[in-house]
Amino acid sequence: MQYVIRRAAESDADALAALARQTFIDTYLELNDPQDVRQHCDQAFGLAQQLAEICDPHYVVLLQFHADELIGFAQVAHKPQPACITQEKAIALYRYYLKKNWHGKGAALPLLAAAEQAAIESGADYLWLGMWKHNQRAAAFYRKAGFAHVGVTTYQFGPNLEIDDVFLKRIG
Questions:
Q1: Are 60 and 127 a contacting pair, CB within 8 Å?
Q2: Mean pLDDT value across residues 163-167
Q3: pLDDT tens digits, residue range 119-133?
Q4: What is the pLDDT of residues 150-160, one digit of tens each?
Q5: Beta strands in 8-102 (DSSP E)
Q6: Is the CATH code 1.10.287.3610 the one for domain 4-170?
Q7: Secondary structure of residue 112 in the 3-state scheme
Q8: 94 neighbors 76 (Cβ within 8 angstroms)
């Protein structure tokens, strides 16, 4: 299949907000309190937030299309590193989501390759990410894509302090 992956523009903020909200709900609603999921989506994936991230020079926001359908997105961002990331020139794969019906169809690797290229162009030698410890499907994908588990960090989600696994990959 052929995919188009490009950097997001301000005019993409509404579509990105809708996709981000839906992919987060599809990924996390089943194992979490629905109110916590809705509240997180309102805070993290609203139109204003997505527009701000698209315009922020510390973010690279990538959109993935098949034909005219927006099917995925990735964000590479300069974020504070957890203590287990000691490498210099490391940047976060802050968000990385595909629509649920595109899982297992070969769309994930091209989007990851584009995110890695964006990280390299941002001056990074390493790409790191934090991932909810209960998302074993994602963990298997990241390991297959060359990431190594290097530690854990915490993430505030609703009233709960969750444990995230941290993965790291040398790029470039």
A1: no
A2: 95
A3: 999 999 999 999 988
A4: 999 998 887 88
A5: 59-66, 69-77, 90-98
A6: no
A7: helix
A8: yes
